[in-house]
Amino acid sequence: MTSESSWLTDTDPTPGPPPGCPAHGLGPGGLHRLYGPDAADLGDLYERLREQYGPVAPVLLHDDVPMWVVLGHAENQHLVRSPSVYTRDSRIWSPLSDGTVKPDHPLMPHIAWQPICSHAEGDEHQRLRVAVTAAMSTMDHRTLRRHIGRHTQGLVNRFCERGRADLVSQFADHLPMAVMCEILGMPEEYNDRMVQAARDALKGTETAIQSHTYVMDALSRLTTRRRARPEEDFTSHLVTHAAGLTDDEVREHLRLVLFAAYEATANLLANALRMVLTEPGFRARLSGGQMTVPEAIEQSLWDEPPFSTVLGYYAKQDTELGGQRIRKGDGLLFAPAPGNLDPRIRPDLSASMQGNRSHLAFGGGPHECPGQDIGRAIADVGVDALLMRLSDIQLDCPEDDLRWRSSIASRHLVSLPVRFEPKPQQDVNVPPRPTAVPPQRSGWQTTTALPDETPATDPHPTTPTPAPHPTTPEPPRRRSLWQRLLHWWHGE
Ligand code: HEM
């Protein structure tokens, strides 16, 4: 432990300047800010912090509020799996309880305690989480995959004839919202306005409050409707669960689920598509059949977890983590992005992590993401179906032109322009089929996202259903139908 590293926990009777005081020195050799110019490249900053402090490092949040960032894989796992030592209830965080953090702090939306399962602990956490997981468990995975496939088909139909698209604004930002609106029980609320409102609310622009209100109004209407007359959907199961959630609790959990699912899954889709389009190793392994789309998604969860960090966990007692003395009331950032790159578990970052799911992308312990199967299914089926339809897809700009919008919590690709030979529309209710392309342009080894089966009747078609294209050839039969069905069923 270096001398700088003990400032947050020092119990010396003649302590130095308080945390955040400029006397500590900022920049090289001193404390680092996770905001402003210091944080232009957070990935690089985390590596420098790892070198300087080891697996747990002191940093400053906005307004120079002190925090620990957990960089080690094992230390992150220990953090989330030790509920007797760390809590997600921010009310015990010293800078909040002593007034250092003001109500207008820019990170307050992440920090402020709310009556939702992410911030609760013990029996209260159990009560809320059991209702959420029970509502999720009623979901039929076949139906879920069919919704995802249908919405993917509908989205691709919107741009397939043009030969060009931006896969962030026209695909990755839409698919999770379309699927989540189905899951929650409000498919009629999915439209461009809803996607834009959610994106705007998360970006925190001047119109964020208005956009947030737009989403919340839809969730309030849904709660009222299902309280009056439950149906067969996530919201109805939440409303009727024996845990007895109030209308406010139902609304807040719908908001938690919708925003967490939307942001994380949109990032995952964009990251995974960026990887398959730009990384030659990925493309080669996918096209050579050594890697399936679900394996590519898993690799993306290792390399670019959709939430870079989660704010935060708070120490309930004095303790030690990664060689640092943590004091009761200290705050810690759970950090999947640097944790997944810990050289102690990944000495060679270019080595494939195929078959290894021990990344930190979904957290762990009592708060581990309960929606991970849904997030994975949206990404697996969505990417697979898209590549199946647009098998000659190419990046339509130099890779260096790609830009990200970064915050402490996540890194969002701004756009992902692609080009391909224009393709005909397809029926949204049947599995995607590849369209003939010149042989040298095609090269994806996709895994057929949906089983061949009688199409479901769709009460809310995403686009008009065109007749199947007469010249569309049958997909190549690489596996038997039974093998493909099993493969799909197991989500592989
Ligand atoms: C790729 C997609 C997703 C990723 C990477 C992701 C990641 C995470 C992470 C890191 C956490 C915090 C874990 C912790 O505090 O230790 C979390 C919590 C949560 N996620 Fe996800 N998530 C994803 C998709 C979803 C989906 C689709 C849903 C709902 C359908 C969902 C619902 C939740 C909920 C309700 C929590 C709070 C759980 C609790 O505190 O007990 N997530 N997620």
Count of discrete alpha- or pi-helical segments spanning 4 or more residues = 17
CA-based gyration radius: 23 Å
Q: Which CATH architecture of the domain at 125-304 and 359-489 is right?
A: Orthogonal Bundle
What percent of residues are in strands?
5-15%
Low-confidence stretches: 1-24, 448-492
User: How is the largest sheet built, in terms of strand order?
Assistant: 1-2-3-9-6-4
Structural class: alpha+beta
Q: In sequence order, what are the helices and strands, one letter per element?
A: EHEEHEHHHHEHHHHHHHHEEEEHHEEEEH
Overall shape: globular
Distance between the termini: 44 Å
CATH topology of the domain at 125-304 and 359-489: Cytochrome p450
Protein name: Cytochrome
Organism: Streptomyces fodineus
GO molecular function, one term: iron ion binding
Biased composition (Low complexity): 451-460
Overview of the structural elements:
It is a single chain. With 492 residues, the chain is of the alpha+beta class. Helix content is 41%, strand content 9%. It has a domain of 311 residues: Orthogonal Bundle (Cytochrome p450). Strands 1-2-3-9-6-4 form a six-stranded mixed sheet. Strands 5-13-10 form a three-stranded antiparallel sheet. A two-stranded antiparallel ribbon has the order 7-8. The chain is globular, with a radius of gyration of 23 Å. The N terminus and C terminus are likely disordered. The protein binds protoporphyrin IX containing FE. Protoporphyrin IX containing FE (HEM) binds next to helix 5, helix 12 and helix 16.
